[in-house]
Amino acid sequence: MKIKLSFRIWLLIILLVLSLLSIYSFPPAFLKSGIKITSVEANSTAFNYGLRQGQVIKFIDGIPIKDIQDFSAAMEGKFPSNESKKIIFTTEDSEIIYFSNETPNIFVSDVPKSNIKLGLDLIGGSRALVKAEGVQLSKSAAADLVSVTSNRLNEFGLTDLKVRQVSDLEGNNFMLIEIAGATPKDLENMISQQGKFEAKIGNQTVFIGGKDKDIASVCRGDQTCSRVEKPQQIQDGYVSKFSFEITLSGEAAKRHAEITKNLGVNSTTQGKYLNETLDLYLDDKLVDSLLIGDSLKGRVTTQVSVSGSGTGETEEEAIKSAEENMHKLQTILITGSLPYKLEIIKLDTISPVLGEEFIKIILIAGALALIAASLVVFIRYQKIKSSLALIFTSFSEVIIILGVAALIEWNLDLPSIAGILATIGTGFDDQIVLLDEANHEKFLNLKQRLKRAFVIIIGAYFTAAVSMIPLMWAGAGLLKGFAFTTLIGITAGVFITRPAFSDMIKIMEGEE
Fold first, then answer.
1. Are strands 303-312 and 285-290 parallel, antiparallel or unpaired?
2. 229-280 residue pLDDT tens
3. Into how many domains does the chain fold?
4. What is the pLDDT of residues 36-65, one digit of tens each?
5. Do 182 and 214 meet the contact criterion of CB atoms below 8 Å apart?
6. Residue-range definition of the domain harbouring residue 140
7. What is the DSSP string of 354-384?
8. Is residue 359 located within the same domain as residue 433?
9. Where do the H-state alpha helices sit in 382-471?
């Protein structure tokens, strides 16, 4: 007997194929090999040679790289001393020649096997819900805060960073920051301070941080104008000083000349200096005081050297501390201060190991739920074809949800997975209604019985859809994933999979 598939069944099949292409692309992502660069610090040696976040390394010095183990093996022993070495990185679309005496400062991961993006709940990292301290933000003000914060955090060379504006049901606006791989302490340190930088002579401000204000450029990553000195031993360990040059705007240079023109000059054994220092303040705390040479008195100069220091119990710790302090100060000078002091009202973290366990548990729970529900249907109706059609339809809804998520690059977090499981549950309910109507009240024909079932299904759909809308904003948007995947799932179910399932029932019952 030749079975003729209906338009609605063909539509479901086409959507399944498109969803699978969206999830795996073509050729399939799971067939790709190599390692993906997930992070490379801006202006680092690796960055300057052309290594970039998102690149996929296929070969190192001609050796095929299939995974992280191959990468580690290929890099092992490359830099046994301070001698410079040449390494050839072959990516998907270019060849990069790296020549240095230090290991490339990059972070890598295996190439993703699909286009599905997972949230921090599943891959690990930290998430902070932040508000402006003592200020009720408007939507435009919150958008400005997100923009400034994004610029600042991007200067740290972070990967998988997401900063977005969210609001709750009361209309309060917040900022949500998500960083994969960062600890809560790292995240808190990055955003807890306003980062206001000021340079003063006496009580008069000479310049403040930020490109849009007084800073034209900041030297970073260039040893001719940005350096960390050899540590010096002190009582409790070591101290290492750093210095870097900045270029002031014309207005700031004129302000410097105006403030210094009436200052006196002191003569010392080290030379002649003005009787006031250039004091550097970070968040209203004095971080350094610089002597001003007498040649700069009343002079319009745009070149200024900024300095500071770092300490540690060992020389290595002192150098690392100095580099971190210099990087932080450079970042603040580049991006400017945040427009508000920030208050973290919720801080979450999860480890990648725990995320992997979540995925395993969710997959097992979903599979068991699908099997158990199918067994109940089979026991109830004693029809193996109907049970298989029900499983296929429910599985199709999951594929469509994942395909849409991959297409729009939606991050699937735990609430999103919960929404998928909820969709499976509602899908089973609706399909049981269809099966029940198809097997009862034979005085109506099958088409009429299925039409009556769809009245019930459509009513349930609109009730569920309306109830999901408030969840898009509830909890400052933290439940948006649940609402999104549930809406996608039940919408695809009502308009795609349920009609196709009803046609499958017609075919199995021998009616067109």
1. unpaired
2. 888 888 778 889 888 888 888 888 888 888 888 888 887 766 787 888 888 7
3. 4
4. 887 676 567 777 778 877 788 888 888 888
5. no
6. 125-193+344-349
7. HHHHHHHHHHHHHHHHHHHHHHHHHHHH--H
8. yes
9. 384-407, 414-438, 446-468
